[in-house]
Design brief:
The protein is mainly alpha-helical. The protein is built from 16 helices and no strands.
């Protein structure tokens, strides 16, 4: 069917708006990064401020207590890894060269290439009037991080100050949100969206913080038992990197492999640290986190990875940390908007289909398909909900055998 001009114009305007918004976020990232970070931090820590308010502590004083504790914990973690991080940054060229040499010695795969390079270099040096070579050495990743650290520290400082003011303002944001809405229905809907964002963000990240702390302790203990240098650094790094789904664990495994290659003479023994890191991280990701956070807060793995890739491209390493909370906020917003129900369906994690969708899938897909039957851990509440739903369907069929099962 031909596309109506009004519809084409509508989508063209939306496309232009999205492109302009992305360009603005990239151009003014020095402003948007601390603002977004502060908003998310205030939403995550607001339940703690309300808990302090129940015991008679005002919002301003509660904000001071919360941010002092937050900054103190962050400073302690940075102090614990500062010496190791400084050593790694300063010795990064030597470390990379040593890793390359050890890999070459252990595997011997690149030995023919190295010999050919040496022969070519000798031929060039023996040639008459050989032109002078100019070698441009690229900066390593740790050197780049060292250069960007002051910039990131300034952005984090600005975000912390802004978050302190947001937390100290109490529920003023909700008051203003209700005041600007035109009617009672819009006021209620806007307030429910804001509350859902706060609840889902705080529940998810306070839970993940506890899981990450346990993960960091286990990784540090494992590295200590394996005789790796500075296991405390590995534990703190595992705690911080686990806030970045999938990508953070890959970075940690690669770094454990690099340090293992440098530490051990035996190649197979050098695989023990990355294997231990992978084993602990896999157990956490496959069994502990899915059960702890609940199915309602789980996200589509593909959507999470695309969000990390997009925000890393837009805002570099800081964007990788902010990608997941922004995705959770977008999911909470789409849950309360019927126009965006399709977006919420794609963002949420897998779950058992309702009866109608299950019948359609079973009639179209192959017998070996796992569609509508995800093999994921379930919480006790989710199992009880499914059992009660099945019992309700059976009761309906007993009363009226000709009735079709109702959608769940």
């Amino acid at each position: 069917m031909p596309v109506r001009p009004e519809a084409a114009t509508h989508w063209a305007i939306i496309g232009l708006f999205v492109m302009m918004a992305v360009a603005a976020l990239s151009f003014a990232q020095s402003f948007f990064i601390p603002v977004v970070f502060a908003l998310l931090l205030a939403l995550i820590l607001s339940p703690i401020r309300r808990a302090l308010g129940k015991v008679g502590i005002g919002p301003g004083f509660a904000a001071g207590i919360i941010m002092i504790v937050f900054c103190a914990i962050s400073a302690i973690l940075l102090f614990m890894v500062s010496s190791s991080l400084a050593t790694i940054v300063s010795d990064e060229p030597q470390l990379m060269n040593k890793v390359q040499e050890r890999v070459n010695e252990m595997t011997g795969v690149l030995e023919p290439v190295r010999q050919a390079g040496q022969q070519l270099e000798e031929m060039q040096q023996s040639a008459p009037e050989a032109p002078e070579r100019v070698v441009v050495r690229e900066e390593g990743i740790f050197s780049l991080w060292a250069q960007t650290t002051p910039y990131v520290a300034g952005q984090v400082g600005l975000a912390i100050v802004l978050a302190t003011f947001l937390i100290a303002s109490g529920d003023m944001f909700y008051e203003k949100l209700v005041e600007v809405m035109p009617n009672l229905s819009a006021k209620r809907k806007a307030l429910m969206i804001a509350r859902d964002m706060e609840r889902q963000l705080s529940t998810y990240f306070l839970t993940i913080t506890g899981i990450n702390a346990a993960l960091g302790i286990l990784v540090g203990v494992a590295m200590w038992l394996l005789g790796m240098p500075d296991p405390v650094f590995f534990g703190v790094a595992a705690f911080a990197l686990n806030y970045i789904p999938y990508v953070g664990s890959i970075i940690g495994i690669v770094f454990a492999f690099m340090m293992g290659v440098v530490t051990y003479d035996n190649f197979w023994l050098s695989l023990a640290p990355p294997f231990a890191y992978w084993l602990i991280n896999s157990a956490e990701g496959q069994f502990i986190t899915p059960v702890a956070v609940g199915r309602r807060l789980r996200l589509n793995a593909v959507a999470v990875f695309l969000s990390i890739a997009f925000w890393a491209w837009l805002w570099s390493f800081v964007g990788m940390f902010l990608s997941t909370p922004m995705l959770i906020a977008l999911k909470a917003f789409s849950e309360r908007n019927s126009e965006l129900s399709w977006l919420n369906t794609f963002l949420e994690g897998r779950k058992p289909c309702d009866m109608e969708d299950d019948q359609v899938v079973q009639g179209v897909m192959d017998d070996g398909s796992d569609a509508c039957h995800p093999n994921e851990p379930q919480t006790l509440e989710e199992v009880e909900e499914q059992v009660s739903t099945r019992e309700q369907i059976d009761e309906d069929l007993e009363r009226d055998p000709s009735a079709q099962p109702s959608s769940v």
